[in-house]
Specification:
With about 425 residues, this protein is α/β, with parallel strands linked by helices. Helices cover about 40% and strands about 15% of the residues. The chain contains 17 helices and 14 strands. The strands form 3 sheets. A 6-stranded parallel beta sheet has the order 2-1-3-4-5-6, sandwiched between helices. Strands 7-10-11-12-13-14 form a 6-stranded parallel beta sheet. The longest helix has 21 residues, at about 405-425.
Length: about 425
């Protein structure tokens, strides 16, 4: 039997749909890894290739984040009109299974690896259930090596993606990770991760750890970094800004080949940081913290959430000045987005401030709630101005002109974001 795994594309004319550099869906490679050998597995990335709706696949499997859900439902409808059975998993379907079940035949809610073999067995025996939900979280020691061969020929910039931990010990109210995994922070055995990395090194020296917080437990991450030293990797991942306070761990990361981290600054307003649950962030130390990253050879892709209640129109030029003064190598400025399952959505719903549940606009660049400190128009215009200004050539020069080893990653990243922003504007 044959299963076709599909990653829905992002709409053109949106930032994430215009970006030229793409990472493959590691979750689909993980699902492929627990698929029994009697099943043939194929992958289709809707972002870059046409879907064959007349495929001979017996089962169609979709995964989607919230802004991809409308496209996933369109794809499901096209297959179902041809008599195909369609199942769906991922963050959106896990948070809204009843909605997803109006479009597909079955939903996998939560970590799919646990229940996927059972779903396939049920399908083969003609007794597919409507909802599959694991009774317990995945044992991290049992996570198989992802079947990355399904990425071959898909034109990805990088296929060396890996996950070592799941979950986050913090509970930021806007974050979907806690809604999906809870506050459990679970870790794969270091020796298994290092063995998988040894195999990945045979194909490429670059690797991206998709962990939401790779350094939450230094007793885990320090041996991992020490074990990676000398393997010749150049790698990226996610870390909180207070990572800067652990010089031993940061030095070990740099020595193991870390070139950059995605860092959630989130706000320059300490009251906003407290309101969103970002308990480890101290705005007054951000400048020194950023320098500490750089001193260890680690560049920063900063993230700043726009639209919290303490934000006014003055925040946009203030953020630009900070990013340039701190010489952040790259940054994104997501609009506050009340994703299903998050604490912030429950709060804004209770306050009557959700103004749209058009999931297509839940892409962090469209406003779906009523802000307090400014109008919807002011927030949207400020977001657009900040992105254009940050990725202008003068700003890029101010932030990147001093050579730093991370420029090999962040230089092309800046050019890529600038090009995507320009394509988005021209298509608006």
């Amino acid at each position: 039997m044959k299963v076709l795994l599909i990653s829905p594309g992002w709409p053109k004319g949106r930032l994430w749909g215009e970006l030229g550099f793409r990472f493959p869906s590691l979750s689909l490679a993980a699902i492929a890894a627990v698929t029994p050998p009697e099943w043939e597995v194929a992958l289709c990335d809707d972002h870059s290739e046409r879907i064959d709706f007349d495929t001979d696949a017996d089962l169609i499997a979709l995964t989607a984040m919230t802004p991809q859900a409308p496209r996933a439902y369109e794809i499901a409808a096209a297959f179902k009109s041809r008599g195909r059975i369609v199942v769906m998993g991922g963050f959106h379907a896990s948070n809204l299974p009843d909605e997803a079940l109006t479009h597909v035949d079955a939903v996998v809610a939560g970590e799919g690896e646990v229940v996927w073999p059972r779903l396939l067995a049920d399908f083969a025996q003609g007794r597919l259930q409507r909802l599959y939900k694991p009774d317990a979280m995945m044992d991290m020691a049992d996570i198989p090596v992802a079947r990355r061969e399904i990425f071959n020929g898909k034109g990805y910039l990088l296929t060396n993606t890996i996950q070592t931990t799941r979950g986050c010990p913090f509970d930021c109210e806007f974050c979907s990770v806690t809604a999906f995994y809870g506050r459990n922070y679970r870790k794969r055995p270091v020796e298994k991760v290092l063995a998988e990395l040894q195999e990945l090194r045979k194909s490429n020296s670059f690797v991206f750890f998709v962990d939401d917080n790779l350094v939450a437990d230094r007793k885990y991450s320090l041996p991992l970094f020490q074990g990676m030293k000398g393997m010749g990797f150049k790698w990226l991942s996610h870390a909180p800004i207070d990572f800067a306070g652990d010089q031993e761990l940061m030095r070990a990361a740099g020595e193991s080949g870390c070139l950059g981290m995605f860092v959630g600054f989130e706000s320059l307003n300490q009251e906003s940081l407290s309101a969103m649950g970002k308990v480890t962030n101290r705005a007054q130390s951000f400048m020194a913290d950023a320098q500490s990253f750089r001193d260890n050879g680690i560049g920063i892709l900063g993230s700043f959430v726009l639209g919290y209640d303490g934000d006014t129109p003055e925040i946009f030029p203030k953020l630009l000045r900070f990013c340039e003064d701190a010489r952040l190598e790259a940054a994104i400025f997501p609009l506050l987005t009340p994703y299903p399952g998050t604490t912030v959505r429950r709060r804004l719903e209770a306050e009557g401030r959700i103004i749209s549940s058009n999931w297509r606009d839940y892409d962090m660049e469209h406003i779906t709630f009523q802000p307090k400190g400014m109008t919807v128009q002011q927030l949207q215009e400020g977001y657009d101005w900040l992105n254009r200004s940050f990725y202008s050539f003068p700003s890029m020069y101010r932030r990147l002109f001093k050579l730093h080893r991370s420029v090999q990653v962040f230089g092309p990243m800046n050019i890529g974001f600038r090009a995507a922003i320009r394509r988005k504007r021209s298509g608006a």
